Structure formats: structure tokens, C-alpha cells
Amino acid sequence: MTVNIYDSANQIEREIREMDEFKALQEAFTAMKAETESFELFTNFQELQMELQQKQMQGVEFSEEDAMKAQEMAMKVQETAVIQDLMQKEQAFSVIINDLNRIIMKPVQELYDMGN
Length: 116
Fold this sequence. Notes:
flat, YheA-like fold
């Protein structure tokens, strides 16, 4: 019997959409997006994180201005209830994704373990 791994992956994708954790994440995102100011803060925070990650990957040191801006924005994010709720829901969902990744990668891990 031939197994099509992509069919299995597509089935998992459909099942993920039905999970309570995903639905909670989706609801939290919708609630956060409905608050224009919070959504703008969230978007700006994501953009700043990507900008700082790119600098880090390029070996560019953060300026004092970068650090201050990141700290100031992180404080605003922490004070915004709908963003905090979204981040908590994202963390719960992330645990599931990490578990799935560990399961999927198990054959490779076992292969490497046999080499020891």
C-alpha cells in the first residue's frame, strides 16, 4: 500500500482548524483585531521584532535607540489585555505544534540515536 504523506499532512491541516486551541487562537486574534489601536500596536511590535531579527542575523548590533524602542513597545504590549490573551492562546497552540513536530521528526531522531 502506497502512503501519500501529503494527503496525511492535508488531513492534519484540516484537523488543526477544528481544534479547540486553534479556535481559541482565532477568536483571540479576531478580538484583538477589532480594537484598532491594539491591532496597530501588535502589527508594529511584529515589524520591530522582524527588523531586530534581521539585524541580529546580519551581525548588526542593536543601537540604544533600538533597545529603548523594543522595551517601550514590549511594555505597551504587556499592558494590552487583548494582545496578552492572544499571546497566551498562541503559546497553548504552539505546544501542540511542537508536539506534532517532535512526533513527525521521531524517525530522524531515532536514526541519529542509532549512530551513537
